Amino acid sequence: MQLSRRFLPPMSLLCAFEAAARHQSFTAAAAELHLTQSAVSRQIRALEERLQAELFVRERQTVRLSPAGHAYAQEIRGALARIASATLGFKANPQGGSLNLAILPTFGTRWLAPRLPQFLSAHPGITINLTTRLSQFDFQLEAVDAAIHFGLPHWPGAEMALLMTETVVPACSPQVQAQYGFSQPQDLLQAPLLHLASRPDAWRRWLHGHAVTSGDPQGMLFDQFATAAQAAIAGVGVALLPRFLIERELAQGDLVRALPQLPEMESAERYYLVWPTSRGDYPPLQALRTWLQAAAGDFMLASAEGWSAPTKP
User: Fold this and answer.
1) Cβ(172)–Cβ(219) under 8 Å?
2) Contact at 8 Å (CB) between 97 and 283?
3) Cβ atoms within 10 A of the Cβ of 24, count?
4) Which helix (H) or strand (E) holds 8?
5) Which residues contact 163 (CB under 8 A, 6 or more apart)?
6) Which residues have a Cβ under 8 Å from the Cβ of 144 and sit 6 or more positions away?
7) For the chain, first and last CA: distance in Å?
8) Which of helix, strand or coil describes residue 40?
9) Which helix H or strand E contains 244, and what residues bound it?
10) How far apart are CA 96 and CA 127, in angstroms?
């Protein structure tokens, strides 16, 4: 869609407004931009005249954003961040393209990072910049082209492509397994259960899937898989963890399946690649999407051949 230039204010006015909105002060904005306070004031007034609306409420020696100004500031800040990111990406790789990808920490470390050299080798002109996000965010306010999402297939204002499923297993240290002598799902309630903040009802669903009614099981709360896994290794309790993210620990014997005789349970949620609708035809994103789906498909096929069949809650 081609935008009319009459809806594009000069960059100097937008930068002055963004700084003033962030500081809630014309004086502080002037210091940041190396301008005089009166110059910033004139730029804000010029922008208001273009918009035919007040962006700030002026009260004696102070200013504060109007409701409309607050909403406009969020949009402008996101747009300026994307322009800056695009410029940085171009300077870093002028012969190709760059892609800002938001990742889940443990998924990015354990699954994506080891496979990235394959993508970069096949697409030498593309630079991937990684940033961590634990939950959904507004693409309009972030300089991010795409994200790895775990959950249900819902992200407002975005499109998504399915990557893969996961299975989860109760895991603990060998010492904890020996201490409690787990033999059936009900026995896990005797030990401390380790919970993930991003999946607060995971244990309840797992127990329900194995015909154990316990209300909401209590226990320690962690914000990342890696921390929960380390706590389980240290003998703090039993963690419900994705099998593919703890293969190393299981192979080394640092973690064991608390109930190895049980089949693995498939999570109700899935992993997706998510991107804003306006970014769908961006060539680096198209290349990443194609590669990720192929890599995830190969991984799921190998997993199905090597692991026991999962059950569903």
Assistant:
1) no
2) yes
3) 13
4) none
5) 148, 270, 271, 272, 273, 292, 293, 296
6) 100, 101, 102, 131, 133, 137
7) 46
8) helix
9) none
10) 8
CA–CA separation, 59 and 26 (whole Å):
13
3-state helix, strand, coil in the chain (%, to 5): 50, 20, 30
Helix pair angle (11-23, 26-33), 10° resolution: 130
Query: Side chain identity at 5, as an amino acid letter?
Result: R
The dihedral built from the CA positions of residue 206, 210, 211 and 212, taken in this order, carries a sign that is negative
Unique residue bearing structure tokens 């790789």? 93
- For 159-199, the pLDDT digits (tens) are 999 999 999 999 999 999 999 999 999 999 999 999 998 88
Measuring CA to CA, which residue among 142, 174, 162 is closest to residue 293?
A: 162
Over the stretch 27-75, which tens digit does the pLDDT of each residue have? 999 999 999 999 999 999 999 999 999 999 998 888 999 999 999 999 8
The token pair at 8 is 């594009």
Residue 134 one-letter amino acid:
L
Quote the CA–CA distance of 307 and 82 in Å, as a whole number.
Answer: 43
Q: 241 near 108, Cβ under 8 Å?
A: no
Segments of the chain assigned E as strands: 56-59, 62-65, 97-103, 126-132, 146-151, 158-164, 167-172, 193-196, 219-222, 238-242, 256-257, 265-266, 270-276
244 Ramachandran zone, left/alpha/beta (phi>0; psi -120 to 50): alpha
Chain segment 85-120, per-residue pLDDT in tens: 777 766 655 555 789 999 999 999 999 999 999 999
Cβ atoms 228, 196 nearer than 8 A: yes
